[in-house]
Every structure is written in C-alpha cells, then in structure tokens.
Design brief:
Helix content: over 70%
Number of helices: 21
Order of helices and strands: HHHHEEHHHHHHHHHHHHHHHHH
Structural class: mainly alpha
Strand content: under 5%
Number of strands: 2
Distance between the termini: 60 Å
Radius of gyration: 29 Å
Strand order of the largest sheet: 1-2
C-alpha cells in the first residue's frame, strides 16, 4: 500500500468514534489469532494503535499476539477504556496494563513471568501459547488479588505504591478478578448472540439464565458480566431492563436494592460518556457523528425516564438531569451561533462595499452547511434533550432567511456592477448549497436554474446595448 493510501486509511480510522475503533481493533486481533487476512489486519491494526495511543508507533513492533503482556491481558479486552474519561464499574483503564505487567515481571510473579516468556519463545503455534497464557493468568490473578485485597498496613501501602499511581492501584482488583474468572466470562460471551437488537422478555430470560453462575454473581464480577451483555445490545441503555426484571419493579429504590442495580449506573455512565464525546466534537467543529450521538442520547434518556421511576433528588435522577442539561447547553450554544454564520456569508452588500477580487471561502460555506444540517438533526431529537424551542425557532428562521436571501441574490445577478458579479455568483452558489440542506435537492436545482437564467438574461441585455 502506498504512503498516500496509508494516510487515507489513517484519516478514515481517526474519524471513527472511540467505541467503533475499539470494536474494530478487537475483531481484527481475533482475525489475526485465527490466521485470517493477517497482512491486511496487521496493517489496519498498526494504524489503529497509532491513533489510540496518540503517538507514532515503531514500525518494527511485532504483532501484538506475540506480546506476552498482550496475551496475558487478552481476557480484559472487552472491558478496557481507551480515554481519560472516568471509568465505571465493569471497566479497566488500558493505561494500567503496562505498569501491572512490569510489576508482575519485577516482583509480583517474576519466576512465572520468565517461564511464560520462555514458553512463548519456544511455542510454534497458538495451542502452546494459549496454554501458557492460561496458566500464567491464574498465577498473575493470585499475585494481584493478594496485594489488592483491602488490608490496611504500611507495608501494603508501600507495595501498592511500587505498582503504580493511584489510578493503576484502583484497577488492580478488577484486573485480578477478571483474570481469575476468565473461563466464566468466556462461557457467558459464547452463550450470548453477537448482537441483540431488542432486549425483550425472551432475551432477558436467556441472559438471566446465562448469568446463573456463582462466580459471576459476586459484587466484583457482576459489573463485568453486565458490561459484556450491554456490549451485545444494539441499544446499550436497555441493560437496565435486566435490573428492572430482577427487582420485579420499576421503582428506583427497589432496583437499587438489588445487585443488578449496578446496570443502571452503567447505563447512566455510558450516556454521560456519549454526552462528553458530543460536546468535544461540537467544540472541534466535527459533526460527522452528531446524528448517531444524539440518537443514542435521545433514546437512552427517554428509555431511562420511561422504564424507571426516578426521583429528581436521587443520585440516579440527578445524573440523568445532568446529562440532559449538559447536552442541552452544549447544543443550544452551537445552535444559537448558526444564523449569524449564515448571514455573514449571504448578506447583500452595496457594490461600493465589495472590493475587487473579493472571494468567499468555500470551506466556510461547507462548515455553515454542516451546521445547518446539525440544527436539522437536533430538531429530530429536540424533545427529550430539552432544546425543542430553540431548535424549532432557529430552523424556521434559517429557512425564512435563506429563502429570501437566495431570491434576492439571484435577482442581483441581473444587474449591478460587472466588477462585483463574480462575488455575487459565489454568494448565490453558497445560498443554493444552503437551500439543498434546508429544502432538498429539487428546490436547490430550481434556484440554480433561476441563477443561470438571470446570468443569461444579463449577458443578452449587455450585448443588445
């Protein structure tokens, strides 16, 4: 693949949401482990890792399936958080893995770590590598759980400090628990469909049956089991239905009193993460995924408000209110700015105010068109996100202003100073682009023909005179 093609691939992968990047990475790594399309998978994986890690990786890095730390922590892959956003129950920071591996190799289980690396070096295929990994995972889990078990002493605090910073120490117990329960989690994953489009009664019953394993019912492991189920849901917020079912009530107090109440915490945290991603994308002017993010937030907020009897002053109620308020504020601020940006481009100026050679930046036109489309998308999900009034008003104002401005600009092509006609034509082109977003392709085509007729008529008039 040429350098240009590689750059295009990297640009495309960088535009994917973090969730999609993580999912694609997992699927490609599994393909490599199965020996399928290794050359293509390794190429895409290399670019994904560069994007996720935020730095150029060394081109001589061996495949991750040969990496001892990678093999050791493979059971953790479905639960790794790639961003700096706070983690929730059922998540582990990817950044914690390297310090834990270094601690294991240095003092946690050094003999077992050396034996594991030697076994990998001697292995000729995946079978022995997998067996060695499973053996070391149990040893590592024991060492991690031994140091992570909450026992207060000065020696323990010093030992934990040698593992890594507080964020790594916080992840120690979850890492040990997941490694220890690898087989139970794998069995659960194998019993679940690859995607659950609707988490209805039949699917809830099947998931409940799959969860009837004592090791999965512990307070430490249940969040990971629920996270695994949520990942298979087309609408992850629906994981709360499992909690409602187990509580036999939609009252939040009864739901919270069951171990499965953690499902609501997971759903709320994930909605908060989507809201944070939306706010970041808006600040950066990236609107490619706004529609998907708004739909996720809209459906999640509506689902929690509909299927749970939440109190406004409860922890869950305040969290949901915060998600709605933060999203509403971010959207409203951006929506309010759109009419001004459109007016700056389409405002009709006197001929004397247009300098010779004046031009309109077409990238600014496309940015404004993206913002108009953003307002249209917001209108679809306005109700649940508390932006109904501002969205409807702004969209109506945009339609009225662009329609009038386009007609006026088209008429301006029939006369005026020839010196500024090129600038008027650029304004008309921008107006027609906005019409396409607001009114559709047919109306934009109609206005384009009107502009062409206006120019034709002006040229005929000039020749006749």
């Amino acid at each position: 693949m040429s350098q240009t093609s590689t750059e295009r691939l990297r640009d495309y992968l960088a535009q994917l949401p973090p969730q999609s990047q993580a999912l694609l990475m997992r699927e490609l790594e599994r393909a490599v482990e199965r020996g399928e399309d290794i050359s293509v998978a390794n190429l895409v994986l290399e670019q994904l890792r560069k994007i996720v890690r935020g730095a150029e990786a060394d081109e001589a890095i061996p495949p991750r399936t040969d990496d001892p730390a990678r093999l050791l922590f493979r059971p953790l892959e479905p639960f790794l958080a790639e961003t700096n956003f706070p983690t929730r129950p059922g998540q582990i920071r990817r950044a914690s893995l390297l310090p834990v591996w270094q601690w294991l190799a240095r003092e946690g289980a050094p003999d077992a770590a050396r034996a594991f690396e030697a076994a990998l070096a001697a292995a000729s295929d995946n079978g022995p590598m997998e067996a060695a990994a499973r053996k070391f995972q149990l040893v590592a889990a024991d060492a991690i759980l031994k140091i992570a078990t909450p026992v207060q002493s000065d020696d323990r605090q010093r030992a934990l400090a040698r593992v890594g910073p507080p964020s790594v120490v916080e992840d120690l117990l979850p890492i040990g628990v997941v490694l220890q329960a690898r087989e139970a989690l794998e069995t659960l994953g194998n019993r679940l469909p690859s995607q659950i489009r609707v988490f209805a009664d039949a699917q809830i019953a099947s998931a409940t049956d799959a969860l009837k394993v004592p090791s999965l019912q512990t307070p430490q492991l249940l969040p990971f089991a629920l996270s695994l189920i949520a990942q298979r849901l087309a609408a992850p917020w629906q994981i709360i239905r499992l909690a409602v079912k187990m509580a036999a009530s939609d009252d939040e107090l009864r739901v919270a009193s069951t171990p499965y109440g953690i499902a609501v915490t997971i759903a709320l945290h994930d909605l908060s993460f989507v809201a944070a991603c939306l706010r970041t994308d808006i600040r950066r002017g990236r609107f490619e995924y706004v529609g998907e993010q708004l739909k996720t937030l809209h459906d999640g907020v509506r689902g929690l408000r509909t299927e749970l009897d939440l109190r406004n002053d409860s922890t869950w109620g305040r969290q949901l209110t915060s998600v709605r308020a933060d999203t509403s504020n971010a959207l409203q601020s951006e929506i309010d700015s759109v009419p001004g940006r459109v007016r700056r481009i389409l405002r009709q100026r006197a001929d004397k105010d247009i300098s010779a050679g004046a031009k309109i930046d077409m990238s600014e036109v496309e940015d404004a068109a993206a913002l108009i489309d953003f307002v249209a998308v917001c209108r679809t999900y306005a109700g649940e996100l508390a932006i109904n009034e501002v969205t409807l008003r702004t969209f109506s104002d945009l339609q009225h202003y662009v329609e009038q401005s386009t007609e006026g600009l088209v008429q301006s092509l029939r006369g005026g100073d020839a010196r500024v006609r090129a600038f008027r034509q650029q304004q008309v082109k921008a107006a027609i682009r906005f019409c396409e977003v607001l009114f559709g392709h047919d109306y934009a085509s109609l206005m384009n023909r009107a502009a062409e007729n206006a120019l034709t008529g002006e040229r005929k008039s000039s020749r006749a005179s």
